[in-house]
Every structure is written in structure tokens, then in C-alpha cells.
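Protocol step 4 of 5: obtain the predicted structure for the target chain.
Materials: sequence only (see below). No template structures provided, no constraints applied. The aim of this step is simply to have a reference model before the mutagenesis design in step 5. Sequence pasted as it appears in the construct record:
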Amino acid sequence: MPEIKVRFFGLNRKASGVEIETRHVADHTTVGALWNSLRSSAHPDELLARVDERTVAVLVNRRVIDRAETPQTVLAEGDTVTFMVFVMGGQWLHRRGMEQKARKLTLVMERR
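Step 4 output (C-alpha cells):
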């Protein structure tokens, strides 16, 4: 079973004491399956349980995963998956802007 790291940004996980967690996942687990598992195990009051997934950027090892690739992107031993929610002025960021911002924020998070 591969061991991966899961990072959260903007999903209220830090408030609950979890900003990064280590998980063991089954072989051939996809990012989509991980996302569904995380959402289904979240408390209904958590943002993770109710966030519109169209506003979530997903990175695997600091590489932005296109929304169309997310369901079939298979995770491997040592991968770091980052989930980030973006809201700006009440409007969702344009996809390209979200990708650039996600890369920058990932670098900041790694310095912590």
C-alpha cells in the first residue's frame, strides 16, 4: 500500500489541527478516489464536505492536475497531493490564474 502525503489549503483543516496528513492508500488509487474518500469522511460542517469541487485545484508533487485528468491520475508511493480552494472577491479564479496561484502557494506551504 503506497504511503502518500495529503496537504490542505483553504479547506479549514488547519483549524482542526490538520494541514498535512500521511495516508496509506490502496494500489492504483486515483486522485479522484482520494478526493471522494476525503469528502465522504469529513464532518458535514467542514468546508471539505460541501465545497464545490470546481473551485478546488489539485496538485500532485507540485504539478497542477487538469480537472479532466483528476479522476484517472494514479497515485504512487511518496506522492504529495495538495488540495487548494480558491475564492477571490466572490468570484472563482480563472483556471489559468488558479494554476499559477496554486504553484506559488505550494512553494510557500513547503517552506513551513
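Step 4 remarks: The two ends are 27 Å apart (CA to CA). The chain has one domain: 3-110.
Proceed to step 5.
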